Amino acid sequence: MRVHRVLIACALAALLSPAGTAVAGNGGFAPVAPESRNADAISQSFWFISAFALGIFLLVEVLLVLFVVKYRRRRRPRDADGAQIHGSNRLELAWTIGPVLILCVIGTFIFVKLPVVEDVPASTGGQENLVVEVTGTQFSWEYRYPNGVVAIDRMRAPQGRTVELHITAPDWDVIHSWWIPQLGGKFDAIPGTVNRTWFKAERTGVFLGQCAELCGLYHAKMLAAVEVMPGAEFDRWLAERADQQASTTSPLGEELWDGSCAKCHGLEGEGGYGPSIASSALVRDSEAVERLLRRGGIRMPPVGRDWNETEMEALTDYLEESFGS
Ligand SMILES: [Cu+2]
């Protein structure tokens, strides 16, 4: 009797364990609510396949329980054999053809639905696609806009306009993976290769994501966000940002610091995995900083190898301003 109680308690605990996941705020077992047509196709595929999986699960489990009860031993002796049954053509045909048909239906659905994830819609008259180059590095995301504006970790994007993403990683780096679940599928950022995807958000808001390929010690800090804003507001931001980048008021230095330096050296430069920067005399020597960023150190990757002059200057200015005195 005691064994029974322990078994029942264990079974109940096992049943309850997924309940927390099921009601989790991020959608639980379900994918997050899609905000772009390609994310919607992924979501539909999930539900379509889940319907079959759930149907088969219920069929198998219900029959299992029914048979366990119906054919239980009752008063038969323990070593008595059950009835020997051989062959049933109809049943065997059904359980062979059934799954083949199900797989055909699922396969067709997927081949019709999913190419949209990768196929960037062509620019339509009057509204050109916005191309953003996305580069994954240890451990930040860099975005380059057509007018030369650079942003780190947080991408701004216009509402209702197709944003084409060209995703890659520098030659010295490892593979990362771009993934904002509400705006489409996962795309690897591979050195030497450019992967293309897109999104078109119909709603403003901030959509969060995370590097989806284990890329090193601070992979978990490789967060990404896409802030979708009304078109006019976005154009203003882009123009303003370009002006700022040409002047000393650029927020780029701080973004580069937060994105590329602070994750290892601490937000206040106090040191962490990397040595302290706040107490280093190096920060006042912009040439030495540039050398270090371009070539890398003993354990430091050359995070700034591909930075342009604007980026390098923005960061060295920021370092001097923040830690120079
Ligand atoms: Cu990563």
> Order of helices and strands, N to C?
HHHHEEEEEEEEEEHHHH
Instruction: Give the biggest sheet.
Output: 5 strands, mixed
Q: What's the CATH architecture name of the domain at 130-246?
A: Sandwich
**What would you call the structural class?**
alpha+beta
Which regions are unreliable across 5 or more consecutive residues at pLDDT < 50? Answer: none
Radius of gyration: 28 Å
CATH superfamily of the domain at 130-246: Cupredoxins -  blue copper proteins
Say which molecules are bound, naming each kind only once. copper (II) ion
What's the helix count?
8
Instruction: Look up the CATH topology of the domain at 130-246.
Output: Immunoglobulin-like
How many β-strand stretches? 10
Q: Using the coordinates above, name the CATH class of the domain at 130-246.
A: Mainly Beta
Give the strand order, joined by hyphens, for the main sheet: 3-2-1-5-8
Given the C-alpha coordinates, what overall shape results?
elongated
The percent of residues in helical segments reads 40-55%
Describe it.
Strand 6 (176-178) and strand 7 (187-189) form a beta hairpin. The longest helix has 34 residues, at 37-70. The protein has eight helices and ten strands. The protein is elongated and about 90 Å long. Helices cover 41% and strands 16% of the residues. The chain has 325 residues and is α+β, with helices and mostly antiparallel strands. Among the domains are: 130-246, Immunoglobulin-like (Sandwich); 252-323, Cytochrome Bc1 Complex, Chain D, domain 2 (Orthogonal Bundle). It binds copper (II) ion (CU).
